[in-house]
Specification:
Blueprint: E1 5-7, H1 12-21, E2 28-32, E3 46-50, H2 56-66, E4 71-73, H3 82-85, H4 87-107, E5 114-117, H5 141-155, E6 160-165, E7 167-169, H6 178-190, E8 209-211, H7 212-225, E9 231-234
Parallel strand pairs: 1-2, 1-4, 2-3, 4-5, 5-6, 6-9, 7-8
C-alpha cells in the first residue's frame, strides 16, 4: 500500500500535517534534509527518509521507490527576512527543488494529486482583503521564488493544486517569526530574565494570522476537493 508523502516533514507546518494525516492514514512518508525528525516525533508509522530536493537524481530515485499516493510539498525556504541576505538560496530551494519533485513524479509516470504550498506574498501589498484574483506583485526574493514555484506547479502534468497560505502560527514555530518572538520575549519578561520592554517591528502592518493546525487541515481539504491547476488562499 502506498502512502502520502510530506516534504519538509521536520518543519513547522509539515510536522503538524503529519500528525493530522496519521489520524486516517496507516502510514505517512516523510522527507527531510538533512536527516531529522519533527520534535517529539517517534511514531513508527512515519517513514522518514533524508532527501535533498536540490539533487535531481536523489529526488527521482526516492519518488520511484515510494510511488506515493499523494504529495504535500511543504519543503523549502520559509524565512522571508532571510531571503534578502541569501536570495539565491530561496530561489534554488523553492524553485529548483519544486522542479525536481515534479520532474520525479513525471519520470515515475505517476498521476497522484500534489499540493504545492506557495505563499500569499505573491500578491501586491494591499490594505484591504486579498482574493485569488487580486493583483500579483511580490516585493521580496521569497515572494518571487514562490511565484516562480507556483508557475511550475501550474505546468505540471499531474493534478496539482497551489495553496497560498497567509501568516500562520502555533506550537513548534521558531523565534524567527513574529508571534513566536513575541511569546519568547513575554516569557522571559515574566521570569525576570529581561526588562519589561517588548521589542516589535512595524506596528502599522496588518496581518492575517491562522493557527497552523487549521492551515494544514485546509491543505488536506484542498488535496481532496480542490480543482487542479488552481491557487487557493488559506486564511481567515
Amino acid at each position: 500500500m502506498t502512502a502520502p508523502l510530506v516534504t519538509g516533514a521536520a518543519g513547522f507546518a509539515g510536522s503538524h500535517l503529519i500528525e493530522q494525516l496519521l489520524e486516517t492514514e496507516p502510514s505517512v512518508a516523510a522527507w527531510s534534509n538533512p536527516a531529522g525528525r519533527a520534535p517529539g516525533q517517534t511514531d513508527r508509522r512515519v517513514l522518514w527518509r533524508a532527501v535533498d530536493l536540490l539533487d535531481a537524481g536523489d529526488v527521482r530515485d526516492a519518488i520511484a521507490d515510494l510511488r506515493p499516493s499523494a504529495i504535500y510539498h511543504c519543503g523549502g525556504i520559509a524565512n522571508v527576512g532571510g531571503s534578502w541576505s541569501a536570495p539565491e538560496r530561496a530561489l534554488r530551494v523553492n524553485v529548483l527543488g519544486t522542479h525536481h519533485l515534479l520532474d520525479g513524479v513525471k519520470h515515475a509516470g505517476l498521476d497522484c494529486p500534489i499540493l504545492v504550498t506557495g505563499s500569499a506574498l505573491v500578491y501586491r501589498p494591499s490594505a484591504g482583503p486579498i482574493s485569488e484574483d487580486s493583483p500579483i506583485g511580490p516585493t521580496s526574493p521569497y515572494g518571487v521564488s514562490k511565484l516562480a514555484q507556483e508557475m511550475l506547479a501550474f505546468q505540471a502534468p499531474a493534478p496539482t493544486i497551489v495553496a497560498r497560505p497567509f501568516n500562520h502560527a502555533g506550537p513548534r514555530q521558531t523565534i524567527d517569526y513574529v508571534t513566536s518572538a513575541f511569546a519568547r520575549q513575554i516569557a522571559e519578561i515574566e521570569r525576570g530574565l529581561a526588562p519589561a520592554v517588548l521589542r516589535v517591528g512595524n506596528l502599522e502592518s496588518r496581518r492575517d494570522i491562522t493557527d497552523v493546525r487549521d492551515v494544514v487541515r485546509a491543505y488536506r481539504l484542498l488535496l481532496r476537493s480542490g480543482q487542479p491547476q488552481r491557487a487557493y488562499n488559506v486564511c481567515s
